[in-house]
UniProtKB/TrEMBL annotation:
Annotated Rieske domain residues: 322-388
Protein's cellular compartments: Cell membrane
Cellular component GO terms held in the UniProt record: plasma membrane
Main location: membrane
Keywords: 2Fe-2S, Cell membrane, Disulfide bond, Electron transport, Iron, Iron-sulfur, Membrane, Metal-binding, Oxidoreductase, Respiratory chain, Transmembrane, Transmembrane helix, Transport
PROSITE patterns: RIESKE
Record family assignment: Belongs to the Rieske iron-sulfur protein family.
Gene Ontology MF terms: 2 iron, 2 sulfur cluster binding; metal ion binding; monooxygenase activity; oxidoreductase activity, acting on paired donors, with incorporation or reduction of molecular oxygen
Name of the protein: Cytochrome bc1 complex Rieske iron-sulfur subunit
Parts of the chain that traverse the membrane: 57-76, 96-117, 165-185
Function: Iron-sulfur subunit of the cytochrome bc1 complex, an essential component of the respiratory electron transport chain required for ATP synthesis. The bc1 complex catalyzes the oxidation of menaquinol and the reduction of cytochrome c in the respiratory chain. The bc1 complex operates through a Q-cycle mechanism that couples electron transfer to generation of the proton gradient that drives ATP synthesis.
Domain of life: Bacteria
Organism the protein comes from: Corynebacterium stationis
Amino acid sequence: MSNVNKKYTDDELKGMSNEELATLGTELDDVTVAFRKERFPIAGDPAEKRAARGINIWLVISVISALAFLGIYIFWPWEFKVHGEEGLIWHNLYTPLLGLTAGIAITALGIAVVQFVKKLMPEEISVQRRHDGPSDEVDRRTLTALLNDSWKTSTLGRRKTMQGLLGGAAVLFGLVVVAPLGGMIKDPWRKRHDLNYMGDGTLWTSGWTLHEKGVKLYLARDTGTIAEFHEGESGSHYTTQGVSRLVRVRPEDLAAGGMETVFPLAASDVNDGDLYDPQKDVYENHMHSIHGNRNAVMLIRLRHQDAQKAIEREGQEDFHYGDYYAYSKICTHIGCPTSLYEAQTNRILCPCHQSQFDALHYGKPVFGPAARALPQLPITVDEEGYLVAQGNFIEPVGPAFWERKS
């Protein structure tokens, strides 16, 4: 145990200099300074100036990179572009530039801090004996003195330029980390474009909302077809003419206990079956439907004996067609795809956070963090035997937002 006198009056403590309090603090904490050496004991050492200049350069790089990150994040054209659209190259550069500038800002700040500790702060080896129990008034006073002494011996207090750069780099580093969170905040009332396969920009619209405009929407599956290669006398090229990425689904296309991911397909964009036209180019519209972030729907054909036990949600008793049920594929937790269907238990599973939904109980969550049932799409069969949407979702698809009422 330490034999250092701890019985000091307030007047005695006030009368001590910061150096004396710092020395007393190390003794009270059972700290032995085994070795301590100033990096540059001679004032104005050119080597010290070079070290400080090098650290400042890293801080300037960090500040510039952080400002570049914020500028790119705010002003760079980030809107999604598909192949062939003007501005695709700028869209493709958006994410890499964010990663590059953020990485440089963080790395440069880290290098500056490490260089400051290794090149400017005094070399010191201290050994401390640990003890239990709260600290008394003397310990609290001396701790403050030790912190002041650390600030003084670090030499940062007299380096005003470095202080400003370090403070600016630290603030900008915080903005680099926090700024992307702003992209998660979205005004649900703001319409960003006319209603299409992507909705209209509000959080409660999707491609299925086109039904409210009188558009006939088929349930269509993705074939994965890509542009076709053509080679002729004039050269080779790729074309999407006559290529159908989405094709309509009939009830007999699914086996009992089967599941198919389907997307909305407007009647004007159909190019399959008896309506196939080799000159028609609907590929781009099909891709817009697939990329619509709230469009994916799980079409499930329950085994008939299971369907007999299904519990319908009040007001949605006629949303299914026989043994066929269509639930949004967007998890109501944070929007991951509920891409797993367990036919034996009739459970729909989200692989992100293990939420589970009961397909026999109107998509009600039975396990995991999801708190709301999966929205159900009303479906039926048209006169040609294809599955179509009987209406739009009657509640917003996906996770909660502050204006959501369901």
